[in-house]
Design goal:
211 residues; alpha+beta; Butyryl-CoA Dehydrogenase, subunit A, domain 3; 5-stranded antiparallel β-sheet; 5 strands
């Protein structure tokens, strides 16, 4: 029962992490820059994500533009895209594999060993998906930090971490933690022997047993 609860907890955490990875990938706030200038009326916030860039005026109006060409993008941005999409696809595969091996499901009930292996294999895929998302977000964040502290970067074009990065870090951590729980939910295989039957001892015969 304890391993079943740990298995369910791991799946829920990994699933929430997978949802967070999708949200982080779709959000345009991977990096943001706020520049007020000399006049606060002209203040605007700039956002850049994996798929588009947005500008929000002080009036609340938001304008977004999708990147025109894939080939014109930086190699780091293309690699971040690839890692995040790979994390989403791996998470989708991990969901189907882990569900098959869950103890609360009736699939493969005739072979409990293979069923447990499926759950562990799903946890391993969740671990890989979480690591891919963690590498992508950390790589992107490192590039933003290096550009921010670069003295040759103009002040009005310096970007900071966006909310999508923090969501991505949290989601990757949940996916890794959930995958680890799924891997640890498999109980150790111990050699079990059938219990020995106790044979009733013959009671000493007395003369009263015979008529």
């Amino acid at each position: 029962m304890a391993s079943g609860g740990l298995q369910l907890l791991g799946f829920v955490l990994a699933f929430l992490g997978w949802i967070g990875i999708i949200i982080s990938t779709a959000m345009p706030q991977w990096k943001m820059a706020s520049y007020a200038g000399d006049n606060i009326v002209t203040a605007q916030a700039l956002y850049e994500g994996l798929w588009m860039s947005c500008a929000m005026q002080s009036t609340g109006q938001i304008q977004c533009k999708v990147y025109d060409s894939l080939l014109k993008l930086e190699s780091t941005l293309q690699a971040t895209r690839a890692l995040m999409v790979a994390a989403i696809l791996l998470g989708l595969v991990a969901i189907f594999v882990a569900v098959t091996g869950m103890k609360c499901m009736k699939c493969m009930e005739d072979d409990q060993v293979k069923k447990m292996r499926m759950a562990v294999f799903g946890g391993v895929i969740f671990l890989i998906a979480g690591l891919a998302a963690l590498v992508a977000t950390s790589w992107y964040g490192n590039r933003v930090a290096r550009a921010f502290y670069d003295p040759f970067t103009p002040v009005n074009t310096r970007f900071e971490f966006g909310s999508a990065l923090f969501i991505g870090w949290a989601a990757a951590s949940l996916a890794i933690l959930g995958g680890a729980f799924l891997c640890c939910s498999c109980p150790r295989r111990e050699t079990s022997y059938p219990p020995t039957r106790g044979y009733p001892k013959n009671a000493p015969s007395t003369g009263k047993d015979y008529v």
